[in-house]
Amino acid sequence: MQVILHIGFPKTGSSAIQSHIFTNQRWLGTQGVYVPKAGYASGLGHAFLLDQENWPTIADSGYRGPAGEGALAQLAEELELAETRGFQRALISWEGLALLNEPAITTLRHALGPHSVILLAYVREQTRLYQSSILQSVEHLTFFSTDSLFSDASETLKIPAYLHFDAVLSTWHQVFAGAIDIRTRLYHRASLLKSNVVLDFFGWLGLNPGEGFALDPTRVNPSLDVRSATLLVVAQASGLNFRGLLSLSRSLSRFVADCGTESSQFLSVEQENSLREQFREGNARFFETFRPENVDQDTRGFPVTHRSQAQKESAFTLSDMQHIHSALTNPAIDTWLGGPLVAKNVARVACRPNEGWRGAEMAGVWSVGPRSELAFRLPFTHPVHGPTAIRLTIGGRYYGRNVETLVTCNGRSRRLNLEQAELSVDIDQKTRQDGITLVMEHMFPEAPNDGAGASAQSGIAFRLEFLSYQFVWDPDDEQ
Fold first, then answer.
1. Which pTM does this prediction carry?
2. SS3 breakdown of the chain: % helix, strand, coil, rounded to 5?
């Protein structure tokens, strides 16, 4: 069997590609392309194939992560079974593969066994990729990039190793002892099929998205621009709490998507030139050894896009601020792909506009009052052959006398112990359009340490510490 590894790189349309692989899994099966389930999570791609030790497992915490144990062993078994079923190709996709070190690549090679391997990497001019990555890290509230965002022109920038395309791909070639076919494509609008990375990817596979293929009409993975990222970093420096920062980040992302602002350049011209010089020799080797398939044969380097006047403008207008204020005061529920949220990260679902939660703490988010909501939208799924349900996992701990919660979803109510609970929620036309809402009614909310003057309206009952879900298909729809 031929195994295709789509490794990204990050910020080259990987989220859009993985979202459409997920949405069209059954269609891919009809085209002879098998998508392994090992380490796979909704629109995230195969993000848990090699990283299961970083997620909760049933053994150490009572929670079950999406990969479980032995994801690579499961992969090997799946590939063997798929081959006996007549599949000639298998597709593995995750931009994190581009970040693997040599031992991890070696581990993956052993799991792939005797199968022939084709590696596909989309690449992008490094100064653009670097700046987009910094803006994404700000959006995700990691904030390790604050210094990079506000760096002085004279400072030496810290460059992630994965930006050295020649070195990364050479490591893959070396680990596989040359028994790997490495292909690359330029992530540049003018070079992509119909200026669309999704259509470009499926076209590269030799597939023609037609009947039965679902193309998501919405914009995938909107990112912050320079102005909105700056506002978010300033808010963080001013002491805004995690819940407020998360709400602001989501509002700014929607603002950028709605307004179509694309200014992702914050480095000075001098810094960009310095970066290009650092990559000059490596890029020359890259174009000699791993030349992108969608560029002319005489191309010797990445196209350089000059800054437009619109991209040089950095001040917010009054209408911009009004748009952001409106989004903050009237927040909408957001899309959650289902990947595990642990400790304070559960606030990415348990936050405004969802009611009944306190601010995030290191261990999780406490309920407040007798009623709490969890509402989220699902990613775009195939309207005909998509999943029929989700299996939602909730974990945490109770306070005081509380031992169970009345949970209502889709008109159905049941009492559950949410310290470790799993429930199935059907996907119908309404949930595809409006999302899923769980209403949690707590029995005995009370103030911590029996604080004086506390009431059920302000007391706590349950600390949410873990959330994840997986999609469920009808057996007849399994590829």
1. 0.79
2. 40, 20, 45
> Tokens 């748009």 belong to which residue?
323
Smallest CA-to-CA distance from 313 within 224, 248, 235, 225 is with 225
Residue 322 CA to residue 379 CA, distance in Å, equals: 28
Half-sphere exposure of 291 (CA within 13 A, CB side): 11
Question: Can you tell me which residue has the tokens 């998508």?
Answer: 35
Kindly report the average pLDDT of the chain as a whole number: 84
CA distances from 109 to 123, 172, 338, 455 (A): 22, 9, 28, 59
Q: Which helix (H) or strand (E) holds 148?
A: helix 146-149
**Most confident listed range (119-128, 240-249, 352-361):** 119-128
- Residue 272 structure tokens: 């960009």
Q: Where are the alpha helices (DSSP H) in 163-225?
A: 165-175, 197-204
In which band, very low, low, confident or very high, does the pLDDT at 119 lie, cut at 50, 70 and 90? very high
Say how far apart CA 284 and CA 29 lie, in whole Å. Answer: 39
* Neighbour count for residue 54 (Cβ, 10 Å): 11
Report the pLDDT value the prediction gives residue 310, as an integer from 0 to 100: 43
- Band of residue 456 on the pLDDT scale cut at 50, 70, 90: low
Distance CA 470, CA 364 (A): 21
The neighbouring-strand residues paired with 184 are 121
Distance CA 343, CA 345 (A): 5
Q: 95 by DSSP, 3-state: which?
A: helix
CA 79 to each of CA 103, 191, 431: distance values in angstroms, whole numbers, following the listed order: 22, 33, 33
pLDDT, position 367: 95
- The C-alpha R_g of the chain, in whole angstroms, comes to 24
